Amino acid sequence: YPPERIRNFSIIAHVDHGKSTLADRLLELTGTIKKGHGQPQYLDKLQVERERGITVKAQTATMFFRHKFQQHEATENENAPNFLLNLIDTPGHVDFSYEVSRSLAACQGVLLVVDAAQGVQAQTVANFYLAFESNLAIIPVINKIDQPTADPDRVKAQLKSLFDLDPNHALLTSAKTGQGLEHVLPSVIDRIPAPPGKCDSPLRMLLLDSYYDEYKGVICHVAVVDGALYKGDKIASSATGHVYEVSDIGIMHPELTPTGVLLTGQVGYIVSGMRSTNEARVGDTLHQAKSTVLPLPGFKPAKHMVFSGLYPADGSDFDALNHAIERLICNDASVSVTKETSTALGMGFRCGFLGLLHMDVFHQRLEQEYGAKVLSTIPTVPYIFEYSDGSKVQVQNPAALASNPGKSVTACWEPSVIATIILPCEYVGPVITLCSERRGDQLEYSFIESQRVLMKYQLPLREIVVDFYNELKSITSGYASFDYEDAEEGVEGKLELWRSTLQSKDFCLSSSKTEYMECNFSSNRFSGRFVTLSNQAINICICFRYLGSIHNIKLSVAEMRVLRWMSGFTFSNMIRNKHIREKVGVALVTNKIRESLLRWYGHVKRQPFDDPVRRVVVLNWPMLRKVEVYLKRLVKLDILLNGQAVDAMATIVHNLKAQRVGRELVDKLKKFIDRQMFEISIQAAIGSRIIARETISAMRKNVLSKCYGGDVTRKRKLLEKQKEGKKRMKRVGSVDVPQEAFHELLKVS
Ligand code: GDP
Ligand code: MG
């Protein structure tokens, strides 16, 4: 198959809109899998995927299809397939959007599946933009038209108004009844471009994914961009320079099917004697060992949003867990693992995940597929702390943060996300309340149709990792859909940016939106670039320190609005205004923060530009700096059992929430820890300050004392019960803590 006879496409959709089912139907239609045989959602191979009904890993399948052209084509065999189609099924859940963007790198187009009854949901929006930004052809597919509540016209109107997609181009299907499916593949061929690679150029292929197979070793999924690859070829990795020999090569049809060759535009697998998946770097460019090529643009590396400690649960040992984790990460390269030791729990691992569901899935796979028994600690997001001596630390484990570092914290950073929420308008009130409780800042509020609203919020990641989604679902009777994307360039990157912001004499401008402009006046010429930045606690909109002459500055709409409102000036007027130029910073803040600002700096009220309605506060420079430090304060919350800090229970919380979280943690623990031989005190502390305390009084001497003179069987029963109870206990210092207690602590936020 030459490239013009190949199409690489993906199916993207909000969860449950029917991606996997549609994929099944297409595989059946092309005879790739037999109809009615095997399980539904063929491409969801993992047990977790089947149990939870979600797709976790992207899967690829190659199909052959006969496309009838308008003009009659002269071929020997009328029915021979004349097109090769590669279908890449993607996960729908937010945590796995990393997998989605990876899959899209190998595609030229997508089927954007939307449920005819539910309409466009949050992930539809997110996925649309992923595809749109990658310049892919987008074919809207309105699925589930067999449902009684289906309303395809409404969905068409949404596609038009939200994405400017031509409603006449939408396909109407039912993956259940088969209605309309016959148009899907012909549309793929007609509307999605052929892969653009050059057949006669040296080989370049993109490593899409890898996993470990007991028998074959590391299997890599690859997309051949230019050139061709044959069995026996020697290939090299652009990332490491290592050379491998291709010992097996083929397509997924849908099982591994050796073909001996992969040509330009094809997607397939290779086995090349890589010993571990560490060598197979996802996003790497592979090329012929003898030639050198320009590497293809790689993917953004996986970004770990949630960290948690994994320890062997009692009754299992460290080596078993170690072995299980090592094997599982061969199939899930997006997890980061480092060894750590806890005084309470012993030896274990600190793992980084893409999100909470990802963490759960990893946990479940460890237990189901590798038989490990795992105890996990409170998930945390990566924070950065900066101290008065200029040093900074990234904290992945709250226990590692010194309670009394002996120097003051000058700033802390926590990752935040931009959340998209779509919901019927009657639920707007409670959702706004929820978001502001979670320290969210509204960025956008718009109607996507008369009864449905799209809201964008900037939220600290910490506030959504714990139970946000469930809460959102419950207060909206399940009608809200939710997705989020990372709001920053990278925690560390941001730190540097802030440094230049606050210390250089240069001009800098940042907005509460996702964009941040870093400007450089080192020469007379202005140069600037937009970088993504956000800050959760305070959204400093614009900070002026020194302005040179500025031309060609692009401002976001929000910034323009603030600026115009502020002074009635246009931007260029503003920068000529000496007062603004030298003295003033502007903060666009949430009402909540504004309140605390006013409390903190009573005199802010007298500032001329303070406007409660528009949430804008104008501060002079030193004040702005102080406020910023104040608002960003995060503190380490220790839990002490009998006066001894339990490292595995430490968390980092926002200043303003510490009291409540401390109280809740202590109450939870009191409920779960049984009375023991001695009195147990449970305390929550920030540094040396105790903020909450409970006591569990001592039990009488021992369980048996209750049955003096009692009969033997009863005694034995009690002893056994006690033993049974023990199994699920974790001894922390002198106190036995049941494992559920650790799990319950996860739910406090
Ligand atoms: P995914 O999460 O997008 O992969 O969605 P699935 O393919 O797993 O489908 C979710 C649910 O919708 C399953 O229970 C399917 O049986 C059902 N479903 C899929 N397509 C249709 C359809 O066209 N009509 C109806 N009525 N149900 C469908
Ligand atoms: Mg699925």
Percent of sequence in beta strands: 25-35%
Mind telling me the C-alpha Rg?
29 Å
Strand order of the largest sheet: 11-10-16-7-8-15-12-13
Helix content bin? 25-40%
Ligand inventory? guanosine-5'-diphosphate, magnesium ion
Number of helices: 20
Q: Strand count, sense and closure of the main sheet?
A: 8 strands, antiparallel
User: Termini, distance in Å?
Assistant: 55 Å
- Let me know the average pLDDT: 72
Number of DSSP-assigned strands? 40
| Helical/strand content category | alpha+beta
General form: globular
Unreliable stretches: 489-594, 596-631, 703-708, 724-728
GO cellular component, one term: mitochondrial inner membrane
Keywords: GTP-binding, Hydrolase, Membrane, Mitochondrion, Mitochondrion inner membrane, Nucleotide-binding, Protein biosynthesis
Subcellular location: Mitochondrion inner membrane
Organism: Dendrobium chrysotoxum (Orchid)
Question: What would the keywords be for this entry?
Answer:
single chain, 749 residues, alpha+beta, six-stranded mixed sheet, 20 helices, binds magnesium ion
Q: What is the topological layout?
A:
Blueprint: E1 6-13, H1 19-29, H2 47-52, E2 59-65, E3 83-89, H3 97-104, E4 109-115, H4 122-133, E5 137-143, H5 152-163, E6 171-172, H6 184-191, E7 204-213, E8 217-226, E9 229-230, E10 234-237, E11 243-245, E12 248-252, E13 256-258, E14 261-262, E15 267-271, E16 285-288, E17 306-312, H7 318-329, E18 336-342, E19 346-353, H8 356-370, E20 374-376, E21 383-387, E22 392-395, E23 409-413, E24 416-424, H9 428-437, E25 441-449, E26 452-460, H10 461-465, H11 468-475, E27 481-486, H12 491-503, E28 508-510, E29 515-520, E30 527-532, E31 540-543, H13 557-567, H14 571-576, H15 578-583, E32 584-588, H16 591-600, E33 616-620, H17 621-631, E34 634-641, E35 644-645, E36 651-654, H18 658-672, E37 680-686, E38 689-696, H19 712-727, E39 729-732, E40 735-738, H20 739-745
Parallel strand pairs: 1-3, 1-4, 4-5, 5-6
Antiparallel strand pairs: 2-3, 7-8, 7-16, 8-15, 9-14, 10-11, 10-16, 12-13, 12-15, 17-19, 17-20, 18-19, 21-22, 21-23, 24-26, 24-27, 25-26, 28-29, 29-30, 31-32, 32-33, 34-35, 34-36, 34-37, 37-38, 39-40
Helix pairs in contact: 7-8, 18-20
The chain binds guanosine-5'-diphosphate (GDP) and magnesium ion.
